[in-house]
C-alpha cells in the first residue's frame, strides 16, 4: 500500500510533469471558452441561422449593452482597436502636420495611426510606477501645433485623467483615450465622481483582440463618446463617410464589427467584471509571493484607478538577466513575455531626429527590464504556486 505522503508526492510530481508538457500560457482562451461554450455556440449559430452577417441585430444589441455598462451615450463598433484610433483622429478633423502627444512606452498602433494620417507624433516619457504618461512631460511637450493628447491606460490602469483633462481644457486640445488594455477599469476623480476608462476624454477607443479582458474570437474594436455631434461624425467615418446610403459627406473607411464577433462579445460582456476580479486575485497572489524579493518590483496600484491587470508586469533589478530568466521559465513550461522590448523612439520605422537614445530614461529602463507573467481568468493556486516558486528559485540562485 502507498502511504498518503507517497500518493501526495506522486500527484504533485504528475501535475508538474503535465505543466511542463503543456506549457502555462499567458492567456488560456480555450478553458475560458469551455465555461461559456453553450452560450457562445448558441450565439454564433443564431447569426448563421439569421444570415445577418454585416451590421446584424447582435451588433446593435452589443452596442446598446456596452453603452449601458460604460454609462456612455454613444458606442460606435468598428473593425479593430487600431481602426478605432484612426477613426477618432479622422473624426476630429486633424490636419497634416498637427501634433499629437502620446506615451513612448506602448504598443506601436498608437503612433502608427498618427503617422498614417500625416500627423506628427510627439512622444513623452511615462511614470516609473503606473507606466502611464508623465503629466509634467505632457505640459513641456505642448506647442502651438499640438491638437490632441492620447493617454494610454497601460496594462489595465487609467492615466491621471484629472490632470490631463485640465491641461486639455486650458490649451484647447482633444483627448483620445486608448483603453484597449483597461476596459472595465474605474477612475475616481478628485471630486469623488467615478467613470469608466474610455468615457472621460472627448473620445475613447478600445480593442476586442482575443487576448483582451473583453475579447472576441477575431478582430474587433469600438469607439466611445458622450458628444452627439462627434458620434455622428464617427459613425459616418466608420461607414465610408456615409450618413445616408450612397451619399458620402466625409472621407471614411470601411471598418465594421463583424456580427458573429458582436454576438460573442454580447455573451462575454456580462462576465467582464468577474473576469477583471479574477485577474486582480491572480495579481494579489503574485504580489504576496514576491513581496519580500528585492530583485524585482511588483506593479503599483494607483488610488485613482482600479486595475484590470491586462498584464502582470514585473520590473527586474538590472542584475537579473531577463533572457536567462525567460529561458529558465520556458524550460519549466511557464510562458512569459516582454511588453515592450523597444521604445517607440528607437523603432526603425519611427526614428526621428528630434529624439535620441537617453531622452526617455524611464521608458528605456522599463523596456530593458520588464517581464510579464501569465495572468488570466482560469488560473488556480496550484498553477500560481508553480510559477512563483520557479521565479523565486531562479532569483535565489543568483
The CATH H-level homologous superfamily of the largest domain: Type I PLP-dependent aspartate aminotransferase-like (Major domain)
Q: Give the class-level CATH name of the largest domain.
A: Alpha Beta
Number of domains: 2
N-to-C SSE series? HHHHEHEHEHEHEEEEEHEEHHEEHHEH
Overall pLDDT: 94
Per CATH, what is the topology of the largest domain? Aspartate Aminotransferase, domain 2
Q: What is the CATH-assigned architecture of the largest domain?
A: 3-Layer(aba) Sandwich
> What topology, given as strand order, has the largest sheet?
1-9-8-5-4-2-3
User: Helix/strand/pairing class, anyone?
Assistant: alpha/beta
Structural commentary:
The protein contains 14 helices and 14 strands. With 398 residues, the chain is of the alpha/beta class. It has two domains: 4-25 and 272-396, Aspartate Aminotransferase, domain 1 (Alpha-Beta Complex), CATH 3.90.1150; 37-270, Type I PLP-dependent aspartate aminotransferase-like (Major domain) (Aspartate Aminotransferase, domain 2, 3-Layer(aba) Sandwich), CATH 3.40.640.10. The chain has a seven-stranded mixed sheet, sandwiched between helices. It has a three-stranded antiparallel sheet with strand order 12-13-14. Strand 2 (99-103), helix 6 and strand 3 form a beta-alpha-beta unit. The longest helix has 19 residues, at 272-290. The radius of gyration is 22 Å and the shape is globular.
Amino acid at each position: 500500500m502507498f502511504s498518503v505522503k507517497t500518493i501526495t508526492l506522486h500527484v504533485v510530481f504528475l501535475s508538474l510533469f503535465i505543466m511542463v508538457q503543456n506549457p502555462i500560457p499567458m492567456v488560456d482562451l480555450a478553458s475560458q471558452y469551455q465555461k461559456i461554450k453553450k452560450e457562445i455556440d448558441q450565439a454564433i449559430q443564431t447569426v448563421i441561422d439569421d444570415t445577418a452577417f454585416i451590421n446584424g441585430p447582435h451588433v446593435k444589441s452589443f452596442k446598446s449593452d456596452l453603452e449601458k455598462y460604460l454609462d456612455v451615450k454613444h458606442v460606435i463598433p468598428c473593425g479593430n482597436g487600431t481602426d478605432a484610433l484612426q477613426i477618432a483622429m479622422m473624426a476630429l478633423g486633424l490636419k497634416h502636420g498637427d501634433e499629437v502627444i502620446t506615451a513612448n512606452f506602448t504598443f506601436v498602433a498608437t503612433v502608427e495611426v498618427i503617422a498614417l494620417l500625416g500627423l506628427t507624433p510627439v512622444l513623452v516619457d511615462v511614470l516609473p510606477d503606473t507606466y502611464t504618461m508623465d503629466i509634467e512631460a505632457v505640459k513641456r511637450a505642448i506647442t502651438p501645433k499640438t491638437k490632441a493628447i492620447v493617454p494610454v491606460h497601460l496594462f489595465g490602469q487609467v492615466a491621471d485623467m484629472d490632470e490631463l483633462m485640465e491641461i486639455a481644457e486650458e490649451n484647447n486640445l482633444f483627448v483620445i483615450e486608448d483603453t484597449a488594455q483597461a476596459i472595465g477599469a474605474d477612475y475616481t476623480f478628485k471630486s469623488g465622481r467615478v467613470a469608466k476608462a474610455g468615457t472621460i476624454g472627448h473620445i475613447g477607443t478600445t480593442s476586442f483582440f482575443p487576448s483582451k479582458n473583453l475579447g472576441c474570437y477575431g478582430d474587433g474594436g469600438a469607439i466611445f463618446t458622450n458628444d452627439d455631434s462627434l458620434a455622428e461624425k464617427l459613425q459616418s467615418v466608420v461607414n465610408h463617410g456615409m450618413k445616408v446610403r450612397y451619399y458620402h459627406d466625409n472621407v471614411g473607411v470601411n471598418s465594421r464589427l463583424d456580427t458573429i464577433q458582436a454576438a460573442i462579445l454580447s455573451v462575454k460582456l456580462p462576465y467582464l467584471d468577474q473576469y477583471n476580479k479574477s485577474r486582480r486575485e491572480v495579481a494579489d497572489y503574485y504580489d504576496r509571493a514576491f513581496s519580500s524579493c528585492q530583485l524585482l518590483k511588483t506593479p503599483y496600484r494607483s488610488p485613482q484607478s482600479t486595475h484590470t491587470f491586462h498584464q502582470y508586469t514585473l520590473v527586474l533589478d538590472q542584475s537579473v538577466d531577463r533572457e536567462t530568466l525567460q529561458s529558465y521559465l520556458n524550460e519549466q513550461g511557464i510562458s512569459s513575455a516582454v511588453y515592450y522590448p523597444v521604445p517607440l523612439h528607437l523603432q526603425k520605422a519611427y526614428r526621428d531626429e528630434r529624439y535620441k537614445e537617453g531622452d526617455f530614461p524611464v521608458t528605456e529602463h522599463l523596456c530593458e527590464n520588464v517581464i510579464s507573467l501569465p495572468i488570466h481568468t482560469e488560473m488556480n493556486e496550484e498553477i500560481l504556486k508553480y510559477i512563483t516558486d520557479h521565479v523565486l528559485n531562479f532569483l535565489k540562485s543568483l
